[in-house]
Design goal:
By secondary structure, this protein is α/β, with parallel strands linked by helices. It has nine helices and twelve strands. Strand 9, helix 7 and strand 10 form a beta-alpha-beta unit. It is globular, with a radius of gyration of 18 Å.
């Protein structure tokens, strides 16, 4: 049902990285959707029916999951961003918006910075969901390095993994490497404070115990444009449990971009802009 880019003829594309639920010949705008740690493109499957046919959704699929299950997962933000930047020509081909949940929001922010560093066009909008600001450290410690039994217990406490999956030992043997890798990125990556010239929408769940309101408000330090913050019902995985409300927020952003005729941004990289920093 969902076609990877292997079946397209667009020059220079890596067929493993992106999945399209519906191809659009001449899209007005593309929405790139980044998964949360341990997540996949399945969180976004239902989105396509909610957007006009001239809007193209692009699901970002990192290695270690779905059709890339046999590939070694990335263990650092540098590796992940390097792979995505190899597709910068495609990403910036038409006006675009980034959406990412949790770790996916921080990946979207870092990719925005690196596009800016290379002198390329930036997204019309950055939408981060269920995520602390990218320059703040995590508060959970190094979950990724816990012994297996403790690691699985922490997964269970996060309420993001179905119990039937946690109880399936063979399946967990397959999933643990990519989960550890994603958690390593989430826990080690910390951006320098650098405001990108992109308007930003921050979504957070009113019952999210993993992200505090102070961590949400701190996103204002990472954009030199307007930053809007919107509270939604739900815990950390409200992107799944209340997807209709999340989609409505994204639709509002897209409608605004279309009305403004997609004021495509090309900004020169400042001299003192920061780079990826572990911490």
């Amino acid at each position: 049902m969902y076609r990877a880019l292997a079946k397209t003829k667009e020059k220079g594309l890596n067929e493993r990285i992106f999945v399209f639920p519906r191809r659009v010949a001449k899209p007005k705008l593309r929405i790139f959707c980044f998964p949360y740690a341990g997540g996949s493109i399945t969180s976004y499957y239902s989105w396509v029916k909610h957007f006009n046919k001239d809007i193209e959704l692009v699901f970002v699929q990192p290695p270690g999951r779905s059709s890339r299950i046999a590939e070694r997962p990335h263990e650092s933000m540098d590796e992940l961003i390097e792979e995505l930047m190899s597709q910068a020509d495609f990403i910036t081909q038409v006006p675009f918006v980034f959406f990412g949940h949790s770790l996916g929001g921080r990946v979207a922010y870092e990719l925005t910075r690196q596009l800016l560093a290379s002198g390329r066009k930036q997204p019309e909008y950055l939408i981060v969901s269920g995520s602390r600001a990218a320059h703040l450290p995590g508060l959970k410690g190094n979950v990724f390095s816990l012994p297996k039994d403790q690691f699985i217990d922490r997964l269970a406490n996060m309420n993001g993994t179905p119990q039937e999956v946690l109880d399936n030992k063979e399946l967990m043997e397959l999933l643990i490497p990519v989960l550890r890798a994603d958690f390593k990125i989430a826990e080690i990556y910390k951006a320098d404070i650098f405001p990108v010239p992109v308007p930003t929408l921050v979504l957070y769940g009113d019952e999210d115990k993993d992200v505090s309101i102070d961590q949400v408000q701190a996103w204002r330090m990472l954009s030199s444009k307007e930053t809007s913050i919107q509270k939604l019902p739900g815990g950390h995985f409200f992107v799944d449990s209340h997807s209709d409300l999340v989609i409505a927020q994204v639709q509002n952003v897209i409608d605004g971009c279309i009305r403004s005729a997609c004021n495509w941004r090309l900004v020169k990289w400042p001299i003192n802009a920061g780079s990826i920093k572990a911490g």
